[in-house]
Amino acid sequence: MRKLNAILTAAILLLFILHGILGAFTISGIGEGAAKAAAWVCLLLTVFHMVIGVILTIRTLQAQKKAGAAYFRQNILFWARRISGLAVMVMLCFHLTAFERAGGAAYRLQNFNLFRLISQLLFVLSLAVHVLSNVRPLLISFGIRSLKERSPEILLTLAGILLFFAAAFIVYYLRWVRA
Q1: Measured at the alpha carbon of residue 87, what is the angle toward residues 65 and 168, in degrees to the nearest 5?
Q2: Is the pTM of this model over 0.85?
Q3: Phi/psi zone of residue 31: left (φ > 0), alpha (ψ -120 to 50 degrees), beta?
Q4: Is the four-CA dihedral 149, 133, 89, 53 of positive or negative sign?
Q5: Which pLDDT score is estimated for 150?
Q6: Average pLDDT over the chain, rounded to whole?
Q7: 107, 28 in Cβ contact below 8 A?
Q8: Which residues contact 102 (CB under 8 A, 6 or more apart)?
């Protein structure tokens, strides 16, 4: 079950990047539609990932109860992973309502008030905590012990992707202000 969860996690990360790139094209007015398909597949895989995470958490709690010792202090990272995953799921619900079709080919943010802005920032923050706290176990599950030699290339690629996302939001904002 853990190996299946690792495979799901890798697929979710790839689909998330694909969704972000295609979504950036969509909100920039360059393309349309495919981001939504990637998002729904990513959501489906995320639900499976969540179910497996809940099952593994229940098994861990049962083992702790059977052993008679929880060792909370030694398992803080375990709980950070679980709580950040729960936070991601709550914030994902808010994210699903942030973008709506508003006529024409352009996507518009409907009633994007301070509450929605804060919810989206919390979504990004919870994703960052969840991904960063789970990177090492994910790599270990695929037999990768260290990425120190490849870290600069990975960071450069991620920085480029994030720059592309930021540029798309700027283009989107400029299109929205002019409309």
Answers
A1: 150
A2: no
A3: beta
A4: positive
A5: 66
A6: 80
A7: no
A8: 108, 110
Name the H helices within the chain.
Answer: 2-28, 34-67, 76-96, 114-141, 151-178
The structure tokens listed for 163 are 């720059």
Asked whether 64 and 70 are in contact (CB, 8 A), the reply is yes
Closest CA to 130 of 70, 169, 74, 90: 90
Rounded Cα gap, residues 179 and 173, in angstroms:
10
58-97 pLDDT, tens digit each: 998 998 888 887 777 778 999 999 999 999 999 999 888 8
Lookup: tokens for 150: 């490849």
Collapsing DSSP to helix, strand or coil, 74 comes out as helix
Rounded to whole angstroms, the Cα distance separating 60 from 132 reads: 21
Amino acid identity of residue 87, one-letter, is A
Report residue 109: phi and psi, to 5°.
-85, 115
User: 100-114: per-residue pLDDT in tens?
Assistant: 655 555 555 555 566
In degrees and rounded to multiples of 5, residue 144 shows phi and psi of: -100, 115
- Tokens found for residue 68: 């008679």
